[in-house]
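Hey,
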Amino acid sequence: MTNMLTKWEIDFAKIVLDEIEYRTILLEKLQMKLLSELTDEVQDLQPLFHRALWIFGPEYETIEYTSNQGMTKVIQDLFGVDRLKGSRNRPDFAILPDSTVGMYSFSKYDMEGAEIGIDRLTIVELKRPGVLIDDEQKSQAWKYVTELLKKAF
């Protein structure tokens, strides 16, 4: 710790410590919400995850995502496909990893090395605490994946 502090300037150390505090508080709020079956998915959980995509990994600290939008908007915003019409299904989050973070890059390439699209997309379907994750719940997320594979890729 002492070695780290001698290399960092005060301003940089403050930025890092503020971010640690912010994330710790957010995780505490999330943990409290997850312990209560009264927690609402849309009103309580989505806003917390909206500010905490980093939970899924550093590659998800990105501005390329949609939250609670219809599939037409997801296809248009994330894939730049304007002419296709999507369903009215609304995934809680559709997230493209940020290829500018660290060593992460998730573009897809052909055999000649040309970029041919996106290699990874994450669909998050939040459920409030106490909801049993059965086949119906699982099929809800797969419905989004299937539609995106047909229309956007």
